Amino acid sequence: MTAFIPTAVPVGVDAHLLEICVHRHRDDFRPKWLGRDQVVRDALRTAYRYPEFSWSVTVTPPYPAQDIPSFTFALALGVLVCGDHGSMRPFGDVLVLGALRANGRLEGVSGVLPILKHWRRIGRHTVILPRQQEPLARLLDGLVVMSADTLDEAIALLSRSARPAPSTAPAIVLPPASVLARTVEQSVSPHVLRALETGAAGEHPTLLVGPTTGSAAVLARSARDFLPALTAEDAMAITTAASAATVTRELVTERPMRRLAHDAVPTDLVGDDDYDLGELALAHQGVLLLEDLSGFSQSVLECLAEHLRERELLFQHPKGFISRVPTAPWVVATLRPCPCGHREVAGTCRCTARDLAAYYTAVPSQLLDGLFDIGVAVRAWPPHAAVALEAGDCPATRVAATRARRDHRREELGLPLGYGAALQLDEMRQRHEWSPQEEARTRRVATTLADLRGATKLECSDIDDALAWRPSVALNAFRRPAWRW
């Protein structure tokens, strides 16, 4: 006898449907046991002292990694169907998700949300999964969701002739936008805060150049507080990516904040051949933080510069089609002004001219200007010049309003140039022999600045600020000797 149990594995933010085929053999058949088979055998013997026959397993279509925990639940049900256990009967309309432990308990698996989206898209609706992941399944309308904590409960559910009613997705309630800590806002220059607001509003990659333990590091770790509150659509996209990578149990209600490690390689950014998502996808609609940019390899920075503008990654599905994974994080990075990181404070920096020359060579200005749209020097701001904030005023509110203007106007159309701004750009092209990339960067940032003001065209002040916020300019600001207030 042969039992066919449908299951699936995630491919990016899509799914690859599989069928576990369990074949019952004669008693003298001795198959080659894998780790998954031993787990199933132990679980069934503990609960039923069963089975006493041998079996073999094939996965269709063929899947390279067959000895994985997410197959054990489906395999156990297939063995029980082959053994005519109780009222168990063959079934092929129920998607089986979950991992079975040797004690008979069910545990969650990764990829539940993208798998269920694919299952519903092909016209199927019934699923059984661990109870801990039931809230995730009920985020989708029209699914018939069965959940269990143990194999016994699952068998009881599948033995019933009647199925539960299709679920209705609950209304998604999301928390309001975060308010940036008043101490952070009052410890830095208004110029820096405006640059960060601009970066958040236009999702411009932003570089903060400053001392290792100064305001630059504090602001970078608070970057998520500049982003507006999540919409229901964004929350579902973030949860889908999180579910594809980890065992997720419920809706993600805050924007992700991902930190890239210094020993990262390019595949950590974009994913690998096993369809694992990289940091660009996991930080979608959130913040991807690169602390101390000088510690990353050149290959990682070049990979980031190559894929950042695309806003999506492509995964080759095993069936041949392309799975598109959205990647739209706000990249925020910090960079020390010198090897020791204390260039700003007079009398504490001991870097020689040779050290500085080697450091600036290792962090080429061309790569910084090609990777980041905004770069700003973050210095300690004196207490007497603290920013005066109005009650209830927060950067996330202004960022949300700016994004609404951009979306209403349609981003691809841009804003027209005022007469003075057009003359200024023509002069810069002729005098500095601008590359098309540099001009495009300037216009992107200037357009976001105009949206922040609510203007209908670009002015000279927008162009001036966009030019002043070039990353190479921010780094050069610290090449002068250390200064005092």
| CATH hierarchy, class of the largest domain | Alpha Beta
CATH structural architecture of the largest domain:
3-Layer(aba) Sandwich
Spatial extent as radius of gyration:
28 Å
Q: Numbering strands along the chain, what is their spatial order in the largest sheet?
A: 10-11-14-9-15
Helix content: 25-40%
From the spread of the alpha carbons, the general shape counts as elongated
Kindly identify the CATH topology of the largest domain: Rossmann fold
Mean pLDDT: 79
Number of strands: 15
Q: Structural class of the secondary structure composition?
A: alpha/beta
Distance between the termini: 84 Å
The H-level CATH homologous superfamily of the largest domain, spelled out, is P-loop containing nucleotide triphosphate hydrolases
How many helices?
Answer: 19
Total domain units: 2
pLDDT < 50 runs, ≥5 residues? 384-392, 481-485
Mind describing the biggest β-sheet?
5 strands, parallel
Percentage of residues in strands = 15-25%
